[in-house]
Amino acid sequence: MAKEKPELLMWEISIAVFLICAGVQTGASQSQSAYFLPEFALSPQGSFLEDTTGEQFLTFRYDDQPSRITRSDEDKDLGWDAWGSWSDCSRTCGGAASYSLRRCLNGRNCEGRNIRYKTCSNMECPVEIGDFRAQQCSAHNDVKYQGHTYEWLPVYNDPAAPCALKCKARGKNQVVELAPKVLDGTRCKTDSLDMCISGICQAVGCDRQLGSNAKEDNCGVCAGDGSTCRLVRGQSKTHVSPEKPEETVIAVPYGSRNVRITAKGPDHLIIDSKTLQGQTGEHSFNSPGSFLIENTTVEFQKDPDKQSFRIQGPLGADFNIKVRYAASRDTLVQFVFYHPISHQWRETDFFPCTVTCGGGYQLNSAECMDVRLNRAVSDQYCHYYPENKKPKPKLKECSMDPCPASDGFKEIMPYDHFQPLPRWEHNPWTACSVSCGGGIQRRSIVCVEETMHGEILQVEEWKCMYTPKPTLMQTCNLFDCPKWITMEWSQCTVTCGRGLRYRVVLCIDHHGQHIGGCNLQLKPHIKEECVVPIACYKPKEKLPVEAKLPWFKQAQELEEPRAASEEPTYIPKAWSPCSVTCGPGRQTRQVTCRVLLSFSQTEAELPDDECEDSKPLTERGCNLGPCDGDPAVYQPSIPLYDDEELCDWEYEGFTSCSASCAGGKQEAIVVCLNKQERKAVGDALCDGSSRPPEMIRICNPEPCPARWEVTSWSQCSASCGVGIKTRNVYCTRVLSLEPEDSATVAEQECQETKPAILQACNQFDCPPTWIAEDWQECSHSCAGGTQSRKVHCKQLLSDGSFLKLLDDFCQDPKPLSHTHCAKTDCPPEMAGGDWSKCSVSCGVGTQRRETVCRRLTATGQQVTLSKSVCSGLPPSPLIRTCRMNACPNHKKEMKPKQSQNLNPQILSLNRVYIQTRQEKRIHFTIGGRAYLLPKTSVVIKCPVRRFQKMLIRWEKDGQDLSNSKRIGVTKSGSLKIHSLEASDIGVYRCVAGSAMETFNLKLIGNDNRLIEPPNSQKLKTETDLNEASRLEEKWNRMSKMWQSWSEKNEFYLDDSNYLTNSAEPTGSQERPDKHLEAAVLHGGYSMDSQQFEELVRNISQLVENREVTDDMASQLIYQLMAEASRPQSTTEKWKWPLQENTSNSKLVDKTPNASEHVYSKQLYKKPSIIRHKLNPLMAFQKSNNVSIGRAAFLTNATRTIFLLCEATGVPEPKLTWTKNGMQLQFSERIAWDSTGRLQISSPAAEDAGLYGCTVTNDLGSDTETSLLLFAEAPSIRVSWKNVSDLVSRRVTAVVGGSVTVSSGANVTLECPVAGVPQPTISWHKNEGLMKENSFLLLNGSLLLQNISTENYGVYFCIAANPLGKAVASSFLQLSAALRTSVDPSSPSRGNGRKRVLMASQIGTNIAVKSGDLLRIGCPVPPNHRNAVRWYLRNQTLPEVRGLEYRVLVGGRVLEVSTLSGRFDGQYRCQTTTNSQILSAWVNVILEAYRWELSDWTACSSTCGHKGTQSRRLVCIGTRGQEVTRSACDLLPRRASPTQPCNIQDCPPRWVSSKWSKCSASCGKGIRQRQTSCQQVTANGIVRILPVNACVKAEQPSEREGCVSDTCAEWRELQWGKCSGRCLAPSLSVQQRQVVCQHHNGSSIPESHCDERKRPVSVRNCSSEMCDVQWGAGAWRACTAACGSGFQSRRVECVHRRNNKTVADRYCSWQKQPMTWQHCNATSCSRGECKDTTHYCAVVKRLHLCLIDLYKQRCCESCQEV
Predict the structure, then answer these.
(1) Could you tell me which residue, 1333 or 1386, shows the higher pLDDT?
(2) Are the CB atoms for 1281 and 1297 separated by under 8 Å?
(3) What b/e string do you get for 477-509 counting C-beta neighbours within 10 Å, with b at 16 or more?
(4) I need a labelling partner for 78 at 20 to 30 A (CA). Which of 97, 818, 958, 1052 fits?
(5) Cβ atoms of 643 and 540 closer than 8 Å
(6) Which strands make up the sheet holding 1691-1695, listed edge to edge?
(7) What pLDDT is recorded for position 49?
(8) Which residue, among 611, 592, 616, 605, has the nearest Cα to 520 in the 3D structure?
(9) pLDDT for 1567-1613, tens place per residue?
């Protein structure tokens, strides 16, 4: 069937061509011009009608229609017949359309469409079929056009008519429209799935569905959310050279998309590809074009100094982008692509049911899948991607059939409280496998289930797999084991010859404590022999010592005395006298274990088990000689010798030279020589004491050739991520070895390649860690506040980028995000005490109170101070009015007034309520209207005066309302409606005698449109219709605005706004502050009806004028919500009911200390301006609203500015405006109304100033100001003067020129700026990061202290504000003689204080360190206008030499620089308030810190040659205590000395090589490795030792069994012919078949073979058939004699060599020329220009007259444009 579809499609096109040819022959007999079919359309023939929507559709009339689908009742009502069956698909592949028809049963009066479409045949077409539009154009090749036949080529992507068949003749440039419509299913554009249907471009989503808006995300997933890939973006500067010709820039993995790589520089880009099967290839590019690499199309572009790759993807292999050296300049490579997430979660199948009958449940789980290999892997791979969320397990019921002996079903819920789900239970951890050095603990895990009776049973593990399984093993005792630590050797015990030396050996644990527990077999020895190279000279003795009786006696009696050391040692005391005076006896002595305490230089006695040496004897025999008559015990014989010895020592030559250059050594050879025979004999025959001294001479004294000397690598700059370690490399020549003397020479003298000085290190991903941002400002300036900061869990990757993770990934405790601050006392303030009782019992009286001087301490406590401390501060009000009940003598006066109002009165509340969330019941008061959700219950109250509530009557839409199941009237006259329905929509009226009030109730549907009542079809009055239409229109506009805005914005009101959550008042005058979000949660918004009308009218007008943008809509909706939730006006409060006793409706407020009587007339309240805490406004819009108290900057775009001054108070306060302290006057541009809104039209520069709003009533006043300024773009006053000063140590220059100074100078670069608002100043360095010795001063200048070569470069000053930014630069250079000097490390600037330290009259002490931001405030009120003078150490500030300062806030704040000069001392501010002198002071103490060296750090290695240790650097405070290191950040650090340690041979150990491959490629085999006993010596040499040097039991195994499951392998067949699709000139593709086979030759599924090793099945090849090009013929004659026509031509694919025509698919790799074009002829009209459709007004308003189609049909309307 696959082969029949292309033939069927070609058969359809042949029929179309036949019909065209038939038409041509018929037309030829009548006219010379060719006749073309009007269209190629799927739609059947019919008559065109124009429906009410303005679009053209087909309406059909059939006398004999085929069998149709049964009609529905809805279709009958609409006058249409049922839809017919779907037609055949217009194409067999590539995406096409099918249609269905229906007929109108009422003639031509049916509304809607009579045809519908759907997509079909969405599978891709074979390559040989070619393009569908090209086939339609080629169908005209044999039809004459203007007397000629052409080869027509398609024209794509015509924006004017994408669905017209426009073709272009080969070789011609004219485009001809051969048909007004293409065949249904033709793509509108080449890069889109949208298709043409009936000549109209219809949207087609990536799901191939008509009308779908589904799009592929950046990951290539249809309708995806972009969660299956991540964006990778960055740049890299390469450093290639002739020695290092290539460098890898970035690895782009398999499956990546939207790859963009750009290289700016001379070097060449190349691609190394590696497929999943392991095949690699290198691809270089010399010319631009498209290339196919591993089934991936790569577009390469090349400019003189720029190269770029564009790869749409997905990549068919791993691409490594490399740079190949071409020139000495560096190349900058920028890259961006979407990296696929290679591991994702996949849900598993459901596990077996828990029961076989009676009702059970099933669970499933999720497993981590490798997307590339389609196999399950460990869960840790999926946890690496934070985007991956593990699916929650699903639970479903199963085996619901009743059991044979069961009563029925058992219901199982996911979280059943009576039968909980299975869970994991674990036993306690086992003991750690080792006591130190890192061991493991294990525990057992079981899955248990609790039965209905509470029994715990063990079940299968899969039942608990819906939750993660707890870990079975964990590490423990990770601290180091105790180890032996050796001290330094003592001096040798002798001054010449051979002796002994000792050292202390201690057992130290991981805390550094001296304990036991070390391995005694590994204890280092505590003594060893030593040789002092000094000859010991003794008198020459002829006889041995032992032959002399006195010497024998001394050797027996004298022993070497022992002294205590730091190592426990046995110390014997002297022997006791012999137990007898003659003959054999016994001697004893005491032997104790003692140790020397080094810190006190005293000895301490220890138990014997602390000494490890053998204990000396404590008892021995003795013999003082024979007793009288006893024989002699010992008579030694004395042998005799000759006077001269037979052998003696002599020199015999020298050894070979120890070095070949720089002065080696030769030692004289000493031998023992027989004097008689003159032959060398053994050394034992010569007297050792008479051996001659060593003799050494110098040899080969000439200098050595030059060679490279390297220092050891520095520590890595980073422990993870990517770090750098460095070393120094010198070219040296050794001049002498003894003494060691070498000289550094030029590098050219060293012939070998210079070793590298930089090396990457620790290039692996860091573990996730917490990254904390800077602390924000404190919430209070005194009395204790809080400050916060953001803390993120991030991971530093090996490429240097940070990956933001969830907090669960960071294991360490999370740093604090909130902390306390500003723990200082607040300045004194004058406050008021408690008010006294009212002076009268009725009427209007007064209240008094006393003033109190208070201070809020740092702990938050109020402390009362002496009133003298608060002298000069403004006092609080001391008297106020109070109103009690009316006095009795006024009752008579009130009676006539009461007699006038005897009629009933309804206390209505005219408000609008909009419900946003479903609620059970809402209470309302009569009046206004409500927009509610269905199924909500309401209670409408009707509060009345002078009327019995039992007689209240209710009406709905003019008809009396009677009680029913859902509707009823209570005894109090309230109306209750339960569960609102559409029938409840209407106008409800409460009638109380002659008084009546209404309540309008509407319902909101799911689409945010108002629901029509069921009787809407009935006749209504004109007034009701107008009102309903007006409300409907307003509601629709408001709901659309609210819906579109709420989906995009989250908004919160200021603290000064109040919210209501009910349609009736709660009765309290003071309402708690809430956010707008709270109103949404409470279900609705309530506002005044008049305000709602005005807002709807304004928003509607903006919608109609199309002036509503997202930002403007946000502001309008905010205004709506703010008005809905603002405090009610004072006039509205008196409309609330006063006589109901419920707490929800009572409107009472008691004055302070008043009696229990309630004053029902009026409540008095001091005026208060509603203040909004907002940042300054930058007015970029034409019209701007500014709340009073907020500053605003006006721009050229500002046309109108409104200052809003909202206030509350009773009586209603009076409002006045001032500017710069003067009364504001009305003018043509400046006006204000009673609501407090000041309007300034066309603001100019003279309108800038300080505007004040003052509200007053009988109780007092309130004032607030706003500053209006005209914004100015920033500018820098640049100085082009070059500064050169090589003498001064302090140089100041203005940015703009070059600055030349000497090393060590302090340079200040000033950056004078101007602009409104004040621009922020920042500094940047072009050559790299700013160094630690650079500081930003208070005035924006840059201070560079102690500059060196690292500060060399260009410095940029950037001034920025919201209107733009300005940039200026200066070039800083050092003098030539000092440019090569080494820059010492300079201090870095620490974080300074940002708060203001308030001075006080009793004094404040504060400690400040150098570099802190010192700001001192004078305790005066903000409106203080008198001058403030500052003193330091009783001197005015200008008199203090070297002090840098500035005065802020009108003199109230002093800012002092602490970077230079002496700034400590007593600061005092002095001013006058109320003719009294105010003086306050602060004593500033300078904190002095210094760096000092502390103890040595632990050695970095226990043995070998790499062990080093350094001195710890600590920061010492003023009192000598150690403080935090940040306090010394501004001070230069001392160099920390280092020294080698533990330079000794390591103990022998076993070292193993890697395992070999398994001996069997399929099944069981063996693998081997080699082991050797190795030792690292103290000089770093690895020695191979005999196997007996290592412990045989610890030797690793050298052979083990293995199993290989690679019994399947890929087998590739022969390559096919090079006959695939053409890719480029003479370039095609060929394919081969790759199968997976077992070793026995049988074929098995491909899943058994390793996908990574799969051979490629497609490759490029050279094909002569692809050496083709497009050939275009001449254009045919125009199809129309007048008007607009088109002409066509023949476009063919022609072989380059033989010019033969071949199939168009061979030329598909290049763009086909146009096969038809429009041809312009004379106009056929008689000059008439009129509109032919009634939609021309819309065409004119939408500016569509530029399109020819609309211009022709709306000629008259378009002429007016």
Answers:
(1) 1333
(2) yes
(3) beeeebbebbeeeeebeeeeeeeeebbbbbbeb
(4) 97
(5) no
(6) 1668-1672, 1691-1695, 1701-1702
(7) 31
(8) 611
(9) 888 899 999 888 888 888 898 889 988 889 988 888 776 788 888 88
- Classify burial at 1185, counting beta carbons within 10 Å of its beta carbon; exposed 0-12, middle 13-18, buried 19 or more: middle
Complete edge-to-edge strand list for the sheet that includes strand 1334-1336: 1290-1294, 1306-1310, 1342-1344, 1334-1336
Helix (H) or strand (E) holding 1008: none
Q: Which amino acid is at 855?
A: R
**CA of 114: how far to CAs of 41, 204, 1697, in Å?**
16, 21, 55
- Amino acid making up residue 1708: S
Over residues 478-498, the mean pLDDT reads 82
Tell me how far apart the alpha carbons of residues 1660 and 291 are, in angstroms, rounded to a whole number. 10
∠ at Cα 389 (386, 390), nearest 5°? 130
Lookup result for tokens 């569509």: 1744
Check: CB of residue 299 under 8 Å from CB of residue 309.
Answer: yes
Tokens of 1105: 């004028």
* Plot region of 1626 (φ>0 → left; ψ -120 to 50 → alpha; else → beta): left
C-beta of residue 1207 within 8 angstroms of C-beta of residue 1168: yes
| CA 1626 vs CA 290, 1620, 1631, 1713, 1722: distances in Å | 14, 12, 17, 20, 47
The residue-averaged pLDDT of 759-783 equals 85
Torsion of CA 545, 550, 553, 554, to 10 degrees: -80
Mean pLDDT of 723-733: 87
SS3 at position 537: coil
Over residues 935-960, the pLDDT tens digits come to 999 999 999 988 888 889 999 988 88
Report the amino acid identity of residue 1277.
Answer: R
d(CA 1191, CA 1178): 9
DSSP one-letter code for 1006: T
Euclidean distance between CA atoms 119 and 1477, whole angstroms: 91
pLDDT tens, 972-998? Answer: 899 999 999 988 999 999 999 889 999
Q: Is a pLDDT exceeding 80 seen at residue 873?
A: no
pLDDT digits (tens, 9 = 90+) for 1668-1690: 888 988 888 776 666 667 777 88
Strands 1177-1179 and 1214-1219, sheet pairing? unpaired
Q: Which residues of 38-54 are buried (b: 16+ CB within 10 A; e: fewer)?
A: ebbbbbeeeeeeeeeee
Q: DSSP secondary-structure letter at 1092?
A: H
Closest Cα to residue 532, out of 480, 497, 578, 565?
A: 497
Which is nearest to 1069 in space by CA: 1056, 1058, 1054?
Answer: 1058
- Residue 1120, pLDDT above cutoff 70: no
Q: Are 1369 and 1396 within 8 A, CB to CB? A: no
Quote the pLDDT of residue 1641.
79
* 1348 touches 1384 (CB < 8 A): yes
CA 1237 and chain centroid, separation: 44
pLDDT for the residue 764: 80
Burial 2-17 (b: 16+ CB within 10 A, else e): eeebbeebeeebeebb
Nearest alpha-carbon partner for 374 in 1634, 1418, 1651:
1651
Q: In 3D, which of 1661, 1659, 1672 has the Cα closest to residue 1707?
A: 1672
CA-only gyration radius of the chain, Å? 50
Burial label for 1660, CB within 10 Å (0-12, 13-18, 19+), is middle
Alpha-helix residue ranges (DSSP H) falling in 96-237 = 132-138
Query: Residue 543: which pLDDT band, with cuts at 50, 70 and 90?
Result: very low
Q: What is the pLDDT of residues 807-826, one digit of tens each?
A: 888 888 889 888 888 888 88
